[in-house]
Amino acid sequence: MKAYLTYKTQIKGFSDVAATVKMTEKIAASTVHRLKHEVLNLQDYIGSIERVLARLSRFYVKKDHVFFQHTSGNRALVVLSGDKGLVGDLWHSLARAFVSALDDYRAIIVLGKRGSHYLREEHAPVLQSFKQDGIIPTQEEIALLTKTIFDGLKKKAFTRVDILYPRFVSLAQQKAVFVPFVPFAFQPDHAQDDSSPQHALGIPIFEPSRYAIFDRLLQKYMQLFVYKLVLETKLSECSARTVAMEHASVKTKELIQTLNHDFKKEQRRLITQRQLESFATHRT
Q: Do residue 162 and residue 221 come from a single domain?
């Protein structure tokens, strides 16, 4: 009788797990489409800012070259991860990619508790880590992360910055990649005369300094660039969670079917045993 009740309890428990897994899968899958749309929109916006910065950088490079020249020195790495699990091998793949380039970086900045945990296990020189309060980091959290990078560059704490994140390839595939961040890919054009019409800024200057405009625009560009990669990280996370939960749902259903089979078997055995006992008692 005890085994009979145990099967019923286990089946109910796994049925609750199956419902939770299915709901988690639906939430992750519904987020994937929205994130893909936001990433595409951000890419166009970032491209427009990048074109403006490429023109403004011609005068700014004389003041501070660290953002443009490929200088040697300390390199920093920004690792984009998340705070939640149930994503299969996604966060471990980031850690493995980092280990392969461990000696190349002197400072590590991490977004997400999972990435911070795995990198500290690898004895990474984590300079600062940021956690996320929601599914997607807020603009304030991204601004704080970007400010840490910007201030480190201005103070020459490091001269090069790369970003490691899980790039979305498809719903079932994500790949940990390193993306060069600073020095920027767009280079100021010194071959042309600053006074040539085709290089005119085309915007009114209301600030007391052109460098002030550039600083603000540069920080905005850095925030958007990081935010786009963060959204791609979340896109990969939700995709990995969708696939993992789909796999877990199949395994849970198989386990419930096995338990149901064993439950029916035990139920039949118990009924047969009671019938035999009743028949033996009747004969006696």
A: yes
Domain that holds residue 269: 2-17+245-283
Is the residue at 141 inside a domain? yes
Number of domains composing the chain: 2
The tokens of 265 are what? 């078997």
Tokens 């007391």 sit on residue: 208
Q: Give the mean pLDDT of the chain.
A: 76
- Site of tokens 């988690």: 24
Contact 8, 267 (CB under 8 A): no
pTM, two decimals, is 0.68
For 93-142, write each residue's pLDDT tens digit.
888 888 888 888 888 888 888 888 888 888 887 877 777 666 677 778 88
Is the domain of 198 the same as that of 221?
Answer: yes
Query: Residue 203: enclosing H or E segment and its boundaries?
Result: none
φ and ψ at residue 223, rounded to 5 degrees? -60, -45
Q: How far apart are CA 134 and CA 89, in angstroms?
A: 22
- Average pLDDT estimate for 38-50: 82
* Cα 146 to Cα 117, 128, 186, 189, distances in angstroms: 21, 12, 19, 26
Most confident of 27-41, 76-90, 172-186, 201-215: 76-90
What confidence tens digit (pLDDT) does each residue in 158-204 have?
888 899 999 988 878 889 999 888 876 554 444 344 444 333 333 44
Residues 6+ apart with CB under 8 A from 130: 109, 110, 111, 112, 137, 141, 144, 145
Q: How far is CA 238 from CA 46, 110, 130, in A?
A: 23, 19, 20
* Whether residues 84 and 218 fall in one domain: yes
Residues 52 and 179 in one domain: yes
Whole-number Å distance between alpha carbons of 116 and 94: 11
